[in-house]
Amino acid sequence: MDLIKAEDISYSFKEYDEEGNVTGARTAVDHLSITVPAGTFLAVLGRNGSGKSTFAKHLNALLIPQEGTVYVDGIDTSKAKDMLLIRRNVGMVFQNPDNQIVSTVIEEDVAFGPENLGVPHGELEDRVYSSLEKVGMSEYASNSPTKLSGGQKQRIAIAGVLAMKPKAVVFDEATAMLDPKGRREVMAALKKLHEEGITIIHITHHMEEASEAERVIIINDGKVVMDGTPQEVFGNHAEAEKYGLRAPNAVLLRDMLKDGGMRLGEHIALDEKELAMQIASHLRGGEDD
Ligand SMILES: Nc1ncnc2c1ncn2[C@@H]1O[C@H](COP(=O)(O)OP(=O)(O)O)[C@@H](O)[C@H]1O
Ligand SMILES: [Mg+2]
Q1: Which of 14, 17, 53 maximizes ligand 1 atoms within 8 Å of its Cβ, making it the mutation to test the pocket?
Q2: Does the pLDDT value for residue 288 go beyond 80?
Q3: C-alpha torsion 234→94→223→34, nearest 10
């Protein structure tokens, strides 16, 4: 079952001059089509301004396509009466941890979304605590969010989304403002959601994060220009570089070793550790992979 299906969607922003007159239009999403089966962990890459956030906002009806159709769990997002259902099914976590917290107590913050959906009180409490537990933040439930690290704030934002019981969560550069520790914490939470069957759409600039996805797409000028497993996309790094991406170091190093005459087999190692094992096995004179 395809949880998300975008059929030939386009979206342009109007451009204005200083007096507020419309001077033109900037196409942000340009006849983009994609289907995402339920349960997929999809990474979305592409240079700044390529249309990733505009595409992402179509997945929970923050934007409605000007051309084409987006279906979420079979529902056309342009049908206004189903907007709440779509918003509940697809949660969003954004870049800035400080812009997503609305309450002065963490548990109230996590309760905010489901409370607005009218979830009854007893169930609300269960949802809040199980969501906090999933992101490893239970012990902070009654604290104020002000003293939290960026990674902890993002985990609170994720708990708030989880409390809505979503089918998919879109992370729009949710790790971009975090230090390495915060990024690891958020990636751990994200992977846990994926293991529970939630569809993950992770927009990121970090290749090592994208390497952990099942499927990677590259968006360029509002279109999907590459689509495959991380091995397929990064293995073809000459092409990926055209869209402003740099393959993981292990992929580049593997190519240098091959150019230097080392026979390394077909498997493309995405991280240094995996590549080191491949080289070690080669040096032992064993099998190439
Ligand atoms: N609110 C907006 N008003 C006008 N133009 C916008 C707006 N948001 C995005 N754009 C333009 O749309 C294009 C795609 O932007 P965006 O989807 O934010 O890209 P990305 O997330 O990949 O960096 C860019 O050219 C950007 O300048
Ligand atoms: Mg963006």
Answers
A1: 53
A2: no
A3: 90
